[in-house]
User: Fold this.
Amino acid sequence: DLFDLSKGRVIRCHILRHYHQSQDNISCENDDLLSENDHLLISIHHAMFDGASVSIFLRDLSLAYENNDLISVDDNSLEYIDYSVHEHIMDMSLSREFWHSQLERYNIEYSLTLPVDRQRSSTNQQRSGLSSIAEISFDNELCTSFLNYASSHHLTL
Assistant:
């Protein structure tokens, strides 16, 4: 399997090379560096990465790559476990009061219109929120390769 949470294997990274036929004798000396038109494919388990992490991760990755260096981590910086321990000893009474006051008039019978895995019938309901779409076309041979790989590794695609 691609990810193993019990062993801390939660991220995978691949360089997708864009070779031209005239580049048959490319040196593998710097095969860990990106070349023009190469792509980086990064897969991160959803349990380890949220939407807010994307910009931080991309910024740090870009800085590390541009400076040809690792991002230094301050020895005094907090880690998730530090926050978790701190959160358990925090007095949450003010937060609890705030949310009770915010939600006291909420009608629990009101149903939200949430996105589903198929198009809604012609209700033409408007949705709000931030989203974007990136469309990438693959030829049939590559699509078949993706599907075969996903199937052999018990992945959805």
Notes: Strands lie at 11-16, 39-44. The chain has a mean pLDDT of 77. The chain is about 30% helix and 10% strand.
